[in-house]
């Protein structure tokens, strides 16, 4: 929010310095992010003076130059060489003496120095208007009123606007401070609290009686959708002359970064930033049937906005229509091309209304029209301020454009809004704020902010909330107001804090997450955060049947909540690959969303994305690409970090990966991993393999033991290894071998590992040999050969029975 110091001081009963005001604003929660000086004319004409040309003679060494003497009112005249064709004796001009810096409209600043031009001394410069920032003309020097006195500072003659501009970091709930009068109210409340008084009140501008037009122009107003538009006011003004605004109005708007357009539009912008109330002016000629109708138009109705774009209206878009039912303006958002004020406009209808915040926000985002008016309406404007803002604007329009009121003010307000009431206690305010506020101070602050005290007791009070503060509905909101106005820096910081220790549920989800994130980061992974909202074009119709669709999407590309983590991660990979960052190890904690039979569901995930090379190429080692087994290693290590030692593998058919495997713990799928199909990679223009694993983090935590710390005493006895060579059919996976081995119930078997695969015609048709090692351990004693042989016999029998394996001797 941009605030002008001069403008703000118009409404204050006192005039603090910009620095004092900056401190006050920050203390009351309107944090000043920057304070900068504004100059309508660069340099504000400092050092420039009015001079009188005494003589102007031809330069002896140049045809287009003249030697002049100029009186600047401080003694000897200056000798100045001038190249302007219009310089002549007796003129009053702007002079830049030696030492003065001028700021041309184009080019760098120039400091005057004593110089010789074609052999003649020059003690300064007689200025054209573009050379000092007063205009764009360079036809000749600026010739002024003959009555001006030599030596008068040019800044006193032209009075270029100067100001200090505050940039306030406004929080989204503070719509009451989105105007100069709104900020002034807070400053007055602070000063009242500081001096324990009520004498500081905002000085509102005087509203004069409007001049009456000779002929009336009656325009009726009908509100068909009173939920979307609870109040609508307007007035007809005839005989306006659309022209440039006066300098004071241009300066006000320019100072806060608003470009002046013409007097009518500038006044509506001025009122917006003065009061916070958006206005709109219609060319009365476009109001067919002399009627305004606030209603919704049918779905798909075309409407051309001021930016000359045709937009298809939604049936929920509120429109301001004329008596013929034609849309003239998207209510509270953007005007229409054919109903706005132009240079030929002579009669206008001025609108001031209150529109539903939710409806304005939906329409604004749907059409991508983020206007100042929409920004204020979507936060909730002051419904009690509608008519005042209209009167203020009408007064200025009549004054600055020569218009006259051709109707009384129309105010359609079918259901008068009732103020919100909030009840609280003094003890609650003190407890929540940590400040020891007396009851009188609390009441004084609330009254200064416009709250009505409806009732009070020794314990607390009930207040009616002003319409300018639609965000206040809870006792905690009143606490914030008291803390702000008393000064957020007045809250005492206690020397000690008493707390009760809390026991967190086990497993501690955050500690588990941090543990795995540390492991991955330590192994070269980078954590990424991708958008939970994604593009529906990435998914098949079957997936989209259960996807959560956005009712009010920010853009066409972001229209559903992601049903899978894969696609948003591929976007990040594509972004990096396009910038030649090709070796990527990513992990992400995030959520997926789906529509359930009753309501919606969300699931937590940990996902891994791998692509590129495992390690950089060196003179000792050739680089190799990441592959399924590289991914598998990280997946197994993560499960082991979490304490899972027993799990099974199964080929997956639903994940859409190639290859695709599920890992199960206690017969529940906790991880799915594999390669991303080429067709999916083409969607993102990725031309190198990508490997992907997704952990169902909710199931992981649900199956995790009650402690997330895993400690075990190092065994005192040695492990024993035995090897087997199994001849199997080619289609048998090692996962089947491991599953068969685990089916043998033995507490001694610790590990099953495949260390060699051999294929040869000597083994038989479609046969292969797995060399498998088995590790045995008894933590209580040394194993004997008899115990180990007993388990090995069971294993061999199981392999022969379940897998039709042949044991190679």
Note down, in words, how this protein is organized:
With 809 residues, the chain is an alpha+beta fold. It contains 20 helices and 42 strands. A seven-stranded mixed sheet has the order 29-33-34-38-37-36-35, sandwiched between helices. Strands 3, 4, 5, 6, 11 and 12 form a six-stranded antiparallel sheet that branches. Strands 14-17-20-21-22 form a five-stranded mixed sheet. A hairpin with a 3-residue loop joins strand 27 (452-456) and strand 28 (460-464). Helix 10 crosses helix 12 (475-486). The longest helix has 18 residues, at 785-802. The mean pLDDT is 91.
The helix content, as a percent range, equals 25-40%
Mean pLDDT: 91
Topology, number of strands: 42
User: In terms of per-residue confidence, which ranges show pLDDT below 50 for 5 or more consecutive residues?
Assistant: none
Instruction: Determine the structural class based on helices, strands and strand pairing.
Output: alpha+beta
Computed over alpha carbons, the radius of gyration is 40 Å
Number of helices: 20
Beta-strand share of residues: 25-35%
From the spread of the alpha carbons, the general shape counts as elongated
Largest sheet descriptor: 7 strands, mixed
Distance between the termini: 84 Å
- Give the strand line-up of the largest sheet: 29-33-34-38-37-36-35
Question: Nutshell version of this structure?
Answer:
The chain has 809 residues and is of the alpha+beta class.
């Amino acid at each position: 929010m941009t605030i002008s110091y001069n403008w703000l001081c118009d409404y204050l009963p006192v005039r603090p310095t910009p620095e004092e005001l900056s401190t006050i604003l920050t203390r009351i929660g309107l944090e000043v992010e920057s304070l900068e000086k504004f100059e309508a004319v660069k340099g504000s004409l400092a050092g420039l003076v009015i001079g009188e040309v005494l003589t102007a003679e031809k330069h002896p060494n140049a045809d287009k130059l003249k030697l002049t003497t100029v009186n600047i009112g401080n003694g000897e005249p200056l000798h100045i060489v001038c190249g302007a064709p219009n310089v002549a004796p007796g003129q009053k001009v702007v002079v830049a003496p030696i030492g003065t810096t001028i700021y041309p409209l184009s080019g760098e600043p120039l400091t005057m120095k004593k110089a010789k031009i074609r052999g003649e001394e020059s003690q300064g410069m007689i200025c054209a208007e573009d050379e000092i920032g007063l205009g764009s003309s360079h036809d000749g020097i600026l010739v002024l009123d003959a009555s001006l006195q030599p030596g008068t500072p040019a800044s006193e003659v032209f009075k270029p606007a100067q100001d200090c501009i505050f940039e306030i970091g406004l929080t989204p709930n503070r719509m009451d401070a989105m105007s100069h009068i709104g900020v002034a109210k807070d400053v007055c409340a602070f000063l009242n609290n500081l001096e324990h008084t009520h004498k500081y009140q905002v000085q509102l501008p005087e509203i004069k009686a409007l001049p009456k037009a000779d002929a009336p122009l009656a325009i009726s107003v009908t509100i068909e959708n009173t939920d979307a538009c609870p109040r609508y006011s307007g007035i007809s003004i005839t005989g306006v002359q659309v022209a440039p605004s006066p300098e004071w109005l241009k300066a006000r708007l320019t100072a806060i970064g608003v470009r002046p357009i013409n007097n009518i539009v500038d006044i509506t912008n001025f009122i917006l930033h003065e009061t916070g109330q958006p206005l709109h002016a219609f060319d009365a000629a476009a109001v067919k049937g002399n009627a305004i109708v606030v209603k919704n138009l049918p779905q798909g109705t075309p409407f051309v906005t001021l930016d000359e774009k045709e937009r298809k209206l939604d049936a929920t878009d509120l429109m301001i229509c004329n008596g013929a039912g034609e849309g003239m303006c998207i209510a509270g958002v953007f005007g229409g091309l054919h109903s706005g004020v132009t240079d030929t406009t002579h009669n206008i209808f001025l609108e001031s209304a209150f529109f539903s915040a939710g409806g304005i926000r939906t329409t604004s985002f749907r059409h991508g029209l983020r206007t100042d008016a929409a920004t204020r309406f979507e936060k909730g404007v002051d419904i009690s301020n509608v008519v005042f803002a209209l009167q203020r604007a009408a007064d200025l329009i009549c004054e600055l454009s020569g218009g006259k009121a051709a109707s009384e003010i129309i105010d359609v307000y079918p259901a008068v809004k009732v103020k919100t009431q909030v009840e609280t206690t003094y003890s609650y305010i003190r407890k929540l704020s940590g400040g020891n506020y007396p009851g009188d101070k609390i009441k004084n602050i609330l009254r200064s902010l416009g709250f009505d005290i409806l009732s009070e007791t020794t314990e607390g009070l009930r207040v009616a909330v002003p319409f300018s503060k639609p965000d206040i509905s809870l006792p905690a909101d009143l606490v914030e107001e008291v803390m702000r106005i008393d000064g957020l820096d007045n809250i005492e910081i206690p020397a000690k804090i008493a707390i009760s220790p809390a026991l967190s549920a086990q497993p501690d989800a955050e500690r588990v997450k941090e543990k795995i994130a540390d492991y991955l980061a330590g192994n070269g992974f980078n954590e990424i955060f991708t958008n939970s909202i994604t593009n529906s074009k990435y998914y098949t119709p079957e997936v989209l049947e259960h996807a959560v669709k956005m009712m009010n999407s920010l853009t066409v590309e972001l229209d559903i909540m992601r049903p899978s983590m894969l696609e948003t991660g591929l976007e990040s990979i594509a972004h990096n690959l396009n910038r030649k960052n090709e070796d990527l190890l990513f992990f992400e904690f995030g959520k997926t969303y789906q529509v359930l039979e009753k309501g919606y569901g969300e699931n937590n995930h940990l996902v891994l994305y791998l692509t590129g090379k495992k390690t950089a190429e060196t003179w000792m080692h050739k680089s190799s690409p990441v592959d399924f087994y590289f991914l598998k290693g990280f997946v197994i290590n993560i499960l082991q970090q979490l304490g899972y030692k027993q799990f099974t593998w199964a080929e997956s058919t639903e994940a859409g990966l190639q290859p695709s495997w599920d890992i199960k713990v206690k017969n529940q799928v906790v991880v799915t991993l594999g390669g991303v199909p080429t067709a999916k990679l083409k969607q993102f223009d990725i031309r190198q393999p990508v490997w992907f694993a997704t952990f169902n983090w909710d199931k992981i935590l649900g199956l995790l033991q009650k402690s997330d710390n895993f400690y075990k005493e190092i065994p005192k006895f040695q492990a024993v290894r035995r090897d087997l060579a199994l001849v199997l059919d080619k289609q048998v996976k090692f996962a089947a071998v491991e599953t068969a081995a685990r089916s043998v119930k033995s507490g001694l078997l610790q590990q099953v590992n495949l260390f060699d695969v051999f294929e040869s015609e000597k083994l038989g048709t479609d046969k292969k040999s797995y060399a498998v090692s088995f590790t045995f351990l008894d933590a209580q004693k040394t194993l004997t050969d008899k115990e180990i042989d007993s388990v090995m016999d069971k294993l061999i029998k199981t392999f022969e029975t379940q897998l039709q394996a042949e044991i190679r001797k």
